[in-house]
Amino acid sequence: MENPAITRYSNVPGVDALVNELIGRVADKWTLLVLEALEEHGESRFSALARAVPGISQKMLTQTLRQMERDGFVHRTVHPVIPPHVDYRLTPLGHSLGEAFCSVWLWAEAHLETVAAARADFDNRD
Amino acid sequence: MENPAITRYSNVPGVDALVNELIGRVADKWTLLVLEALEEHGESRFSALARAVPGISQKMLTQTLRQMERDGFVHRTVHPVIPPHVDYRLTPLGHSLGEAFCSVWLWAEAHLETVAAARADFDNRD
DNA sequence: AACCGATACTCTCTTTTGGAAAGTAGGCAC
DNA sequence: GTGCCTACTTTCCAAAAGAGAGTATCGGTT
To answer: What interface predicted TM-score (ipTM) does this complex get?
Structure first.
Protein backbone atom coordinates (compact mmCIF):
# COMPACT_ATOMS: atom_id res chain seq x y z
CA MET A 1 0.00 0.00 0.00
CA GLU A 2 3.05 2.22 -0.28
CA ASN A 3 2.73 5.24 -2.48
CA PRO A 4 5.67 4.94 -4.89
CA ALA A 5 5.08 8.47 -6.11
CA ILE A 6 7.37 11.24 -7.04
CA THR A 7 8.94 12.93 -4.11
CA ARG A 8 11.72 15.38 -3.77
CA TYR A 9 12.91 17.85 -6.38
CA SER A 10 14.17 15.06 -8.60
CA ASN A 11 11.88 12.15 -9.19
CA VAL A 12 14.14 9.16 -9.02
CA PRO A 13 12.22 6.71 -6.83
CA GLY A 14 14.99 4.52 -5.45
CA VAL A 15 17.22 7.42 -4.53
CA ASP A 16 14.68 9.10 -2.29
CA ALA A 17 15.24 6.90 0.75
CA LEU A 18 18.97 7.57 0.55
CA VAL A 19 18.47 11.29 0.13
CA ASN A 20 16.12 11.24 3.11
CA GLU A 21 18.73 9.50 5.18
CA LEU A 22 21.40 11.99 4.20
CA ILE A 23 19.07 14.90 4.89
CA GLY A 24 18.35 13.42 8.30
CA ARG A 25 22.04 13.35 9.04
CA VAL A 26 22.74 16.78 7.71
CA ALA A 27 19.66 18.47 9.17
CA ASP A 28 21.03 18.22 12.67
CA LYS A 29 21.36 21.16 14.99
CA TRP A 30 24.84 20.35 16.20
CA THR A 31 26.18 19.39 12.78
CA LEU A 32 24.96 22.70 11.46
CA LEU A 33 26.41 24.70 14.32
CA VAL A 34 29.78 22.98 14.09
CA LEU A 35 29.80 23.46 10.34
CA GLU A 36 29.12 27.12 10.83
CA ALA A 37 31.84 27.49 13.45
CA LEU A 38 34.36 25.90 11.11
CA GLU A 39 33.25 28.10 8.21
CA GLU A 40 33.61 31.10 10.42
CA HIS A 41 36.84 30.42 12.27
CA GLY A 42 38.62 28.12 9.84
CA GLU A 43 40.74 25.27 11.14
CA SER A 44 40.07 24.90 14.85
CA ARG A 45 40.97 22.71 17.76
CA PHE A 46 38.55 20.72 19.84
CA SER A 47 38.50 23.17 22.70
CA ALA A 48 38.08 26.15 20.36
CA LEU A 49 35.04 24.49 18.80
CA ALA A 50 33.61 23.77 22.23
CA ARG A 51 33.85 27.49 22.91
CA ALA A 52 32.56 28.50 19.48
CA VAL A 53 29.43 26.34 19.64
CA PRO A 54 27.47 27.62 22.60
CA GLY A 55 25.82 24.94 24.70
CA ILE A 56 27.38 21.87 23.11
CA SER A 57 28.64 19.19 25.47
CA GLN A 58 32.02 17.56 24.98
CA LYS A 59 30.27 14.30 24.27
CA MET A 60 28.11 15.75 21.52
CA LEU A 61 31.04 17.64 20.05
CA THR A 62 33.10 14.46 19.87
CA GLN A 63 30.18 12.54 18.41
CA THR A 64 29.29 15.23 15.89
CA LEU A 65 32.88 15.61 14.74
CA ARG A 66 33.19 11.81 14.32
CA GLN A 67 30.09 11.68 12.17
CA MET A 68 31.17 14.65 10.12
CA GLU A 69 34.58 13.09 9.66
CA ARG A 70 33.00 9.82 8.58
CA ASP A 71 30.76 11.60 6.11
CA GLY A 72 33.77 13.42 4.72
CA PHE A 73 32.83 16.92 5.88
CA VAL A 74 35.78 17.55 8.16
CA HIS A 75 39.40 16.51 8.16
CA ARG A 76 41.04 15.65 11.45
CA THR A 77 44.74 16.33 11.90
CA VAL A 78 46.48 14.93 14.93
CA HIS A 79 49.75 16.55 15.93
CA PRO A 80 51.51 13.92 18.03
CA VAL A 81 52.78 16.27 20.68
CA ILE A 82 52.29 16.50 24.39
CA PRO A 83 49.80 17.80 25.37
CA PRO A 84 47.74 16.48 22.45
CA HIS A 85 46.85 18.87 19.67
CA VAL A 86 44.10 18.03 17.16
CA ASP A 87 42.92 20.33 14.41
CA TYR A 88 39.67 20.10 12.54
CA ARG A 89 39.01 21.76 9.21
CA LEU A 90 36.33 21.55 6.57
CA THR A 91 36.94 19.48 3.49
CA PRO A 92 35.78 20.86 0.14
CA LEU A 93 32.68 18.68 0.57
CA GLY A 94 32.00 20.16 4.00
CA HIS A 95 32.50 23.63 2.62
CA SER A 96 30.02 22.97 -0.18
CA LEU A 97 27.49 21.84 2.41
CA GLY A 98 28.10 25.03 4.34
CA GLU A 99 27.38 27.03 1.22
CA ALA A 100 24.17 25.11 0.62
CA PHE A 101 23.09 26.02 4.13
CA CYS A 102 24.07 29.64 3.72
CA SER A 103 20.61 30.53 2.42
CA VAL A 104 19.07 28.90 5.47
CA TRP A 105 21.15 31.03 7.81
CA LEU A 106 20.20 34.11 5.88
CA TRP A 107 16.57 33.05 6.02
CA ALA A 108 16.78 32.57 9.77
CA GLU A 109 18.28 36.01 10.25
CA ALA A 110 15.78 37.64 7.94
CA HIS A 111 12.69 36.03 9.43
CA LEU A 112 13.65 35.97 13.08
CA GLU A 113 11.14 38.59 14.07
CA THR A 114 8.38 37.21 11.88
CA VAL A 115 8.71 33.86 13.62
CA ALA A 116 8.81 35.47 17.05
CA ALA A 117 5.63 37.36 16.21
CA ALA A 118 3.94 34.19 14.91
CA ARG A 119 4.79 32.41 18.14
CA ALA A 120 3.49 35.21 20.32
CA ASP A 121 0.33 35.28 18.25
CA PHE A 122 -0.13 31.52 18.52
CA ASP A 123 0.48 31.52 22.26
CA ASN A 124 -2.10 34.26 22.82
CA ARG A 125 -4.85 32.51 20.90
CA ASP A 126 -7.59 30.78 22.87
CA MET B 1 34.71 34.30 30.16
CA GLU B 2 32.33 34.24 27.24
CA ASN B 3 33.77 35.01 23.88
CA PRO B 4 31.55 37.81 22.56
CA ALA B 5 33.12 37.46 19.12
CA ILE B 6 31.65 37.65 15.68
CA THR B 7 29.70 34.61 14.68
CA ARG B 8 27.32 33.88 11.86
CA TYR B 9 27.16 35.60 8.54
CA SER B 10 26.05 38.82 10.14
CA ASN B 11 27.93 40.01 13.17
CA VAL B 12 25.25 41.27 15.49
CA PRO B 13 26.20 39.78 18.86
CA GLY B 14 22.83 39.72 20.65
CA VAL B 15 20.97 38.25 17.71
CA ASP B 16 23.18 35.19 17.47
CA ALA B 17 21.58 33.26 20.29
CA LEU B 18 18.16 33.80 18.78
CA VAL B 19 19.32 32.78 15.33
CA ASN B 20 20.89 29.69 16.86
CA GLU B 21 17.63 28.82 18.51
CA LEU B 22 15.69 29.25 15.31
CA ILE B 23 18.23 27.21 13.37
CA GLY B 24 17.91 24.48 15.96
CA ARG B 25 14.18 24.42 15.43
CA VAL B 26 14.36 24.56 11.67
CA ALA B 27 17.25 22.14 11.25
CA ASP B 28 15.13 19.23 12.30
CA LYS B 29 14.74 16.09 10.26
CA TRP B 30 10.98 15.81 10.62
CA THR B 31 10.33 19.51 10.10
CA LEU B 32 12.31 19.35 6.91
CA LEU B 33 10.58 16.24 5.66
CA VAL B 34 7.11 17.61 6.41
CA LEU B 35 8.02 20.90 4.77
CA GLU B 36 9.13 19.04 1.70
CA ALA B 37 5.98 16.93 1.58
CA LEU B 38 3.85 20.06 1.75
CA GLU B 39 5.91 21.75 -0.96
CA GLU B 40 5.51 18.70 -3.11
CA HIS B 41 1.89 17.76 -2.59
CA GLY B 42 0.37 21.11 -1.64
CA GLU B 43 -2.39 21.27 0.94
CA SER B 44 -2.65 17.88 2.61
CA ARG B 45 -4.52 16.13 5.35
CA PHE B 46 -2.95 14.52 8.38
CA SER B 47 -3.19 11.00 7.03
CA ALA B 48 -1.80 12.03 3.65
CA LEU B 49 1.22 13.59 5.35
CA ALA B 50 1.70 10.46 7.41
CA ARG B 51 1.90 8.54 4.15
CA ALA B 52 4.07 11.13 2.43
CA VAL B 53 6.71 11.27 5.16
CA PRO B 54 8.15 7.77 5.36
CA GLY B 55 8.84 6.52 8.86
CA ILE B 56 7.21 9.33 10.86
CA SER B 57 5.04 8.32 13.80
CA GLN B 58 1.69 9.95 14.46
CA LYS B 59 3.07 11.49 17.60
CA MET B 60 5.98 13.14 15.81
CA LEU B 61 3.76 14.26 12.96
CA THR B 62 1.34 15.91 15.39
CA GLN B 63 4.19 17.47 17.33
CA THR B 64 6.02 18.68 14.24
CA LEU B 65 2.88 20.17 12.73
CA ARG B 66 2.06 21.96 16.00
CA GLN B 67 5.51 23.48 16.14
CA MET B 68 5.38 24.49 12.51
CA GLU B 69 1.98 26.03 13.05
CA ARG B 70 3.24 27.92 16.08
CA ASP B 71 6.24 29.18 14.15
CA GLY B 72 3.94 30.31 11.37
CA PHE B 73 5.13 27.84 8.72
CA VAL B 74 1.86 26.00 8.19
CA HIS B 75 -1.78 26.96 8.34
CA ARG B 76 -4.22 24.49 9.84
CA THR B 77 -7.77 24.41 8.55
CA VAL B 78 -10.33 22.39 10.47
CA HIS B 79 -13.46 21.41 8.58
CA PRO B 80 -16.03 20.71 11.29
CA VAL B 81 -17.44 17.58 9.72
CA ILE B 82 -17.74 14.02 10.85
CA PRO B 83 -15.37 12.26 10.50
CA PRO B 84 -12.94 15.13 11.19
CA HIS B 85 -11.15 16.69 8.26
CA VAL B 86 -8.08 18.84 8.83
CA ASP B 87 -5.97 20.38 6.08
CA TYR B 88 -2.45 21.69 6.39
CA ARG B 89 -0.84 24.03 3.94
CA LEU B 90 2.32 26.11 3.88
CA THR B 91 2.11 29.78 4.67
CA PRO B 92 4.21 32.18 2.58
CA LEU B 93 6.74 32.07 5.43
CA GLY B 94 6.83 28.28 5.31
CA HIS B 95 7.21 28.39 1.56
CA SER B 96 10.12 30.79 1.83
CA LEU B 97 11.79 28.41 4.26
CA GLY B 98 11.27 25.60 1.78
CA GLU B 99 12.99 27.64 -0.87
CA ALA B 100 15.90 28.35 1.44
CA PHE B 101 16.29 24.62 1.95
CA CYS B 102 16.05 23.87 -1.73
CA SER B 103 19.80 24.20 -2.17
CA VAL B 104 20.31 21.72 0.65
CA TRP B 105 18.12 19.12 -1.05
CA LEU B 106 19.98 19.66 -4.28
CA TRP B 107 23.27 19.35 -2.42
CA ALA B 108 22.13 16.08 -0.84
CA GLU B 109 21.15 14.65 -4.20
CA ALA B 110 24.32 15.79 -5.85
CA HIS B 111 26.72 14.52 -3.18
CA LEU B 112 24.96 11.33 -2.18
CA GLU B 113 27.58 9.09 -3.70
CA THR B 114 30.48 11.17 -2.50
CA VAL B 115 29.25 10.82 1.07
CA ALA B 116 28.63 7.09 0.66
CA ALA B 117 32.19 6.71 -0.63
CA ALA B 118 33.59 8.77 2.26
CA ARG B 119 31.76 6.56 4.73
CA ALA B 120 32.97 3.36 3.14
CA ASP B 121 36.49 4.74 3.13
CA PHE B 122 36.26 5.76 6.79
CA ASP B 123 34.84 2.41 7.84
CA ASN B 124 37.62 0.52 6.07
CA ARG B 125 40.41 2.45 7.68
CA ASP B 126 42.27 0.68 10.48
C1' DA C 1 59.70 9.45 42.80
C1' DA C 2 55.08 11.51 43.42
C1' DC C 3 52.39 15.16 41.53
C1' DC C 4 50.51 18.50 38.36
C1' DG C 5 48.98 20.55 34.15
C1' DA C 6 47.40 20.41 29.50
C1' DT C 7 44.26 18.31 25.91
C1' DA C 8 41.16 15.32 23.79
C1' DC C 9 38.48 12.40 24.72
C1' DT C 10 35.51 8.48 27.40
C1' DC C 11 32.41 6.69 30.99
C1' DT C 12 28.52 6.80 33.99
C1' DC C 13 24.31 8.57 35.48
C1' DT C 14 20.10 11.06 34.95
C1' DT C 15 16.84 13.49 32.06
C1' DT C 16 14.72 14.09 27.73
C1' DT C 17 13.07 12.46 23.49
C1' DG C 18 11.13 9.15 20.15
C1' DG C 19 8.47 5.14 18.52
C1' DA C 20 4.58 1.59 18.85
C1' DA C 21 0.30 0.83 19.92
C1' DA C 22 -3.91 1.41 22.27
C1' DG C 23 -7.34 4.89 23.63
C1' DT C 24 -10.53 9.16 22.82
C1' DA C 25 -14.28 11.86 20.62
C1' DG C 26 -18.51 12.22 18.25
C1' DG C 27 -21.83 11.89 14.77
C1' DC C 28 -23.75 8.37 11.43
C1' DA C 29 -25.09 3.87 9.19
C1' DC C 30 -26.74 -0.26 10.83
C1' DG D 1 -26.88 0.17 21.06
C1' DT D 2 -22.16 -1.42 17.89
C1' DG D 3 -18.91 -0.34 14.80
C1' DC D 4 -16.65 2.99 11.69
C1' DC D 5 -14.15 7.03 10.43
C1' DT D 6 -10.36 10.54 11.28
C1' DA D 7 -7.30 13.23 13.87
C1' DC D 8 -5.39 13.24 17.49
C1' DT D 9 -3.77 11.82 22.71
C1' DT D 10 -1.93 8.94 26.06
C1' DT D 11 0.90 5.39 27.93
C1' DC D 12 4.77 2.59 28.13
C1' DC D 13 9.30 1.47 26.91
C1' DA D 14 13.70 2.04 24.57
C1' DA D 15 17.08 5.12 22.57
C1' DA D 16 19.50 9.45 22.70
C1' DA D 17 21.29 13.61 24.91
C1' DG D 18 23.31 16.46 28.75
C1' DA D 19 26.20 16.94 33.08
C1' DG D 20 30.15 16.04 35.03
C1' DA D 21 33.86 13.19 36.61
C1' DG D 22 37.44 10.08 34.94
C1' DT D 23 41.39 8.51 31.62
C1' DA D 24 45.82 8.57 29.00
C1' DT D 25 50.04 10.81 27.86
C1' DC D 26 54.51 12.97 28.95
C1' DG D 27 57.41 16.57 30.45
C1' DG D 28 58.35 19.63 34.15
C1' DT D 29 58.07 20.75 39.13
C1' DT D 30 58.71 19.60 44.03
So the answer is: 0.83
